[in-house]
Amino acid sequence: MKSFPKSFLWGAATSSHQIEGGTHNQWSVWELENAKAKAAQADYHYSEYPMWHAMKAEAKSPVNYVSGKLADHYNRYEEDFELLQKMNMNAYRFSIEWSRIEPKEGSWNAEAIAHYKDYIASLKRRGIEPILTLLHFSLPVWFMEKGGFEHRSNVKHFVRFAERAVAELGKGVKYVITINEPEVYAGESYLYQNWPPARSNKYTFWRVLDNQLYAHKKVYGVLKQMNSRMRIGIAKNSVYFYPGDTAWLSRVSATVMQWAQDDYTLRRVVKQTDFLGLNYYQSSRVFGYRVHNAENIPSSDVDWTITPGDIEYVLQRWHRKYNKPIMITENGVADAADVYRQAWIKETIVALQRAQNDGIQLLGYLHWSLLDNFEWAYGKWPRFGLASIDYSNGVRSLRPSAKWFGGVLKKLRNL
Ligand code: BGC
Fold first, then answer.
1. Are 415 and 95 in contact (CB under 8 A)?
2. What gap in Å lies between CA 27 and CA 23, rounded to an integer?
3. How many domains are there within the chain?
4. What spacing in Å lies between the alpha carbon of 249 and ligand 1's midpoint?
5. What is the mean pLDDT of residues 368-386?
6. pLDDT digits over 68-91, tens only?
7. What's the pLDDT score for residue 3?
8. Which of 330, 344, 383 to mutate to test the pocket of ligand 1 (most atoms within 8 A of CB)?
């Protein structure tokens, strides 16, 4: 097997609203309005999950559904960057919080801008490549009051924010991700009613998706004009769908599901990307026209199948269809007891090596997540962190799998 190039980015990923604490955006407002109801519905939603016995007290409490202080990463980021270094990482993906930088339409918060300048400078000083995401699901309240991405006319607000943010913070930043998982945001917020504004309307869903893809293209153009060497991508979630038998219907359904999930979005933006960001968490077996996963595959705390090796098939498919460099922008497992994470990472590294051997150009691997975080509609109970957070006192500790990963990276990076 070929070894990973020296330039390979090994790191972890986070997003602002999920770890910073103290944010005020469309999520924080919605959380306060819905926490009680969500706690009351926890039994109904999660009681079949493998670790329900261990997490039920947390999941049944309204506190779980309010992000609040979280890991207080906004104030404690230096400590968290030390964790990256302890794990021998050379890259970190994070998002900047639009609602902090532009708290009111057209007014820019100098304190927040200075904060993110220091934040990026600290990463650079530590030899860690910053990978900056402009938008990771959390939107300013004023933007949502105007209808958010429902209206094409609102896209200009995001483009202006992106331009301003990169003008202020972009010096020394080589990799920018415009929007995280636009299709997941549109689906959860405008079809499945899991995320704010919790609407269900197919037409609005398509419009919100379309407007985000349009926004991506616009931002790509603007940022390239500012700095043609900046490498700009989009982060896209991909579940790998495979037929569970040889029946015609299963094969066709798996193909259609994969196409609808990946290609509808990617083919629209691929020309305006320098790399594709892949967020991979699970695969799904299709029988007939439905997903039906095998009973004997273990599943994570959020009941997603644990099939890390299948990332290889997504990589092959994306490479074949789009032939662009790929960065794994998220990948990980909700595993509070830390029983699956080490094997997960190991199988993933083997899959990446095989993909690389097949000629697929990989830029890096960013594990989700550096810290335990606010898992959107689930709240705080799912634990994706390489480092655990004790929410009672803010203490962060690297899990055993993270310490092991750090040792592996030392070898892989020849340190
Ligand atoms: C999102 C993250 C989230 C992760 C695990 C991804 O789709 O980008 O924000 O924490 O999934 O649920």
1. no
2. 9
3. 1
4. 30
5. 98
6. 999 999 999 999 999 999 999 999
7. 86
8. 330
